[in-house]
Description:
alpha/beta, 4 helices
Amino acid sequence: MKILAVCGMGFGSSLMLKMTADRVLKKLGVKADVEACDIGTAGGMQADLILTNAEFAKQLAGGQAPVAAILNMASEDEVEKALKENLDL
């Protein structure tokens, strides 16, 4: 399973979101590859789910992977909810 954590430049909020997703996946016992990247790169990558902020979620919607908008990148509860709603967990 591949999950993208997306922000504007690929090394700010996406890294925080990646770390949060990694913690949640570990807690759930799910093995997945979570990669932080910028929005330009994300559009051309294969993924099972894209996690990002609300603004980028609008831009990435309608692509090959479901997109979940995360308001608080450090919220494990919010990320867990998004993972469970968009993946078979």
